Amino acid sequence: MHPFLSSCHIVQLINPYEQWSDPLVRELFEKTTTLKFEGYGRKYAKGPIPVDAVSWFCDHLLVCQERAGGELQPILGFQHATMKRYREHYRPFSPLAMCESDDDHRHVTAMKELVAQFDSKPQLLSYTGCFAVAPELRTDRQLVDELVHFMVVLHYFFHQEAEKGHEIITGPTIRFRLDTLLNGYGFFPLVESEGEHDKAALPVGAFAGEEVRMMRCREFNRDLVQLAERYMPMWENRKVLRNGANASPESTMSPFAVTAESDRGA
Description:
About 35% of the residues lie in helices and about 20% in strands. The chain is an alpha+beta fold. The strands form two sheets. It has a nine-stranded mixed β-sheet, with helices on both faces. A two-stranded antiparallel sheet has the order 7-8. A hairpin with a 5-residue loop joins β2 and β3 (about 70-80). α4 runs antiparallel to α5 (about 105-115) and α6 (about 140-160) crosses α8 (about 220-230). The chain is globular, with a radius of gyration of 18 Å.
């Protein structure tokens, strides 16, 4: 593990909308939003906005550096929410909306079929997105490479705590080759390529036509499980912000609840 991570903690920010009265939640949500603005600003042309209404009710999985006075600063993050959560907040399911906005027949058909499989159990289908790494860390290529792999490990951790039958759908940007990384750990394409010159890519209008590859995961492979072992102590001691649990006498570093429970069924 990179020495930098010795001063870091995994933090789960559960549905900021539901606990907006908590000043700690507002502070961390603002920092997380800034992380995304700065991270995306270095990688995309001016215009695309990496947050929307969905960001308010998603759960945010973060890696935060502990600074002076116990302040936690996000350096890595992504958001995830189940289809059930989308329905509770009357929002279209993001991956389906992305496919429909481009009117790509193969992607629309495949995504509708996937969504239909989970129509009666929407708590078992999660979408993840808005991946960001603090741009000031990018000069340390070894650290950034580990953080990107750590991001996949965090997918594994929250997947393991979901109910049996849980599946993840995500849309990594092809330009960054994150789809290739995910493919090596158990993810597979929503739409398979039909030939050498068919990338099976989905252009995203909200990101100036940037091409993504929609990827699914039902089970992570052995390589990822082995990689996750080194981060298990961090996960078991993660800090969770959720309604009614934002203070813990056992934690001297910050007023977070230290818990191994996930937001099951949400």
